[in-house]
Amino acid sequence: MPPIADLVLFALALAAAGVVSGLLAGIFGVGGGAILVPVFYQVFGYLDVPEAVRMHLSVGTSIAIIVPTSIRSFTAHRKRSAVDMDLLKSWIVALPLGAILASIIAAFISSVGLRFVFVGISLLVALRMLFNRETWRIGDTLPGGIARQIAGVVIGTLSGLMGIGGGVLNNTYMTSFGRPIHQAVATSSGVGVLISIPGIFGYIWAGWGVPGLPPGSTGFINWIAVALIVPIALVVTPWGVRLAHAMSKRQLETGFGIFLILVALRFLYSIYG
Predict the structure, then answer these.
(1) What are the TM regions of this chain, as residue ranges (predicted)?
(2) Which of 33, 127, 129, 140 could form a disulfide with 253 if both were Cys (CB 3.0 to 4.6 A apart)?
(3) What is the mean pLDDT of residues 158-166?
(4) Gap between the Cα atoms of 56 and 53, Å rounded
(5) Global confidence as pTM
(6) 250 Cβ partners below 8 Å, 6+ apart?
(7) Among 10-24, 169-183, 200-214, which range has the highest average pLDDT?
């Protein structure tokens, strides 16, 4: 068991992560999972959580935290009439289905496999954000019909495997079809709600009865970490919303891209370091 002083230090680190995740939820429309997952991975490792379940526990706990932060962010963005409600309504089945598929995959994939998923998607999206050009578009109108539903399932599945709220992928998806980054960010907050709620139940099921989980865990969700971070994140999320609407498109994309590269490098180090 780590010394009390170290436990206090890591509790403070979790609190700081709550501040950052809340700001990210507001600025980028994400639930903060991209920062929480690596922080959890580090903390759970220090607490001697076995390597085999550490990444799974990090992802599941992040998903649980995304529920309230996404709802808070969605409410704030919707007040500004920035959310594409038609897109969200069309994904009312696709996104939750993807989140459920992610939890099924998580029950069988290895810890290293989950980290590679996180790294690969983070780097691809980061490069798209950093080197984005107005001419880099798939089209000028979001697809409808089966193509839109497939996109929703893919976004839900990959986000569920990363422990994120879908903002990383939905921002890329919407801007690739000519939608403004501010609308993409606002809509992503609603995407997070549709992914994280079924994701909670999925990760509880996926980790039910798995040995090596720390106290306060139900399946792959640690409620002690949730209780520490959620109150802080809820307070600071509206600040992030105000920042998002004050920043330019290029500032949002550059900041988001750099952030994702740093996260990807951190996980590559955990695999090869």
Answers:
(1) 7-37, 57-75, 87-108, 184-208, 220-241, 253-272
(2) 129
(3) 89
(4) 5
(5) 0.83
(6) none
(7) 200-214
